[in-house]
Amino acid sequence: MEKYCIEAILGEGGFGRVFSARERGQEGQRRAIKEVHLDPLAAREAEFMGLFDHCNILPLIETLVEPPHLYLVLPLCEEDLGTFLARKGPRRGPSSFFRVVRQIAVGLAECHRHGVVHRDLKPGNVLRRGARFMLADFGVAEQITPCRPLLTELAGTPVYWSPEQHRREPYNTAVDLWALGLVAMDVATGRP
Questions:
Q1: 120 catalytic per annotation
Q2: Which structural domain, as residue segments, surrounds residue 70?
Q3: Is 97 within 8 Å of 188 (Cβ atoms)?
Q4: Residue 28 has pLDDT above 90, yes or no
């Protein structure tokens, strides 16, 4: 972590902590650094984020390993979708609604193209940078394959679970589409 100067804690939870930081040197670019415990789940999150090169998925700039932690270096964003909606209100106009929801849907389609089920799509996991909305936090994401086309483990935020998750039935990428519908309702009403 010698490469970065930590400025402040942006968030803290069961996953770990997120800091704002400045890169040392002349440029001094600001970044977000997610600190998680070094374990297979953290490594998988970094692996999934490394799969994507898409404008609606938060890019992974680099990973740093300093046991017992793994650090994911990410672009610093202004806020999450929930904070944006609380500050700006619902996106009731067709063009403003479509502009937000379309970006989330396009990012989700890219995940699904790679067989990745996000499993925790919610306003807090959609970040805004300028006019761009990006999927973030792949901590509970999982990949489906031809050998394993359905998932059974419960993960994510229960209020955004699909009916099959609540019934404890096997599921696939469709659970993310259910969550997208709920997020779209949040965007339209301004209330999660």
A1: yes
A2: 4-75
A3: yes
A4: no
- How distant, in Å, are the alpha carbons of 6, 112, 161 from that of 156? 29, 17, 8
Query: What distance in Å separates the CA atoms of residue 192 and residue 185, rounded to the nearest whole number?
Result: 8
- Looking at every residue in the chain, the average pLDDT score rounds to 94
Which one-letter DSSP state was computed for residue 124? G
The CATH number covering residue 178 comes to: 1.10.510.10
Which amino acid type is present at position 101? V
pTM for this model (two decimals):
0.93
80, 120, 176, 186: which one is catalytic?
120
Closest of 73, 81, 79, 78 to residue 31, by C-alpha: 73
Task: Give the containing element (helix H, strand E) for 128.
Answer: strand 126-129
Query: Looking at residue 191, what is its pLDDT?
Result: 79
Q: Residue 9: which H helix or E strand, with range?
A: strand 4-13
Are residues 20 and 70 both part of a single domain?
Answer: yes
Average pLDDT estimate for 93-103 = 94
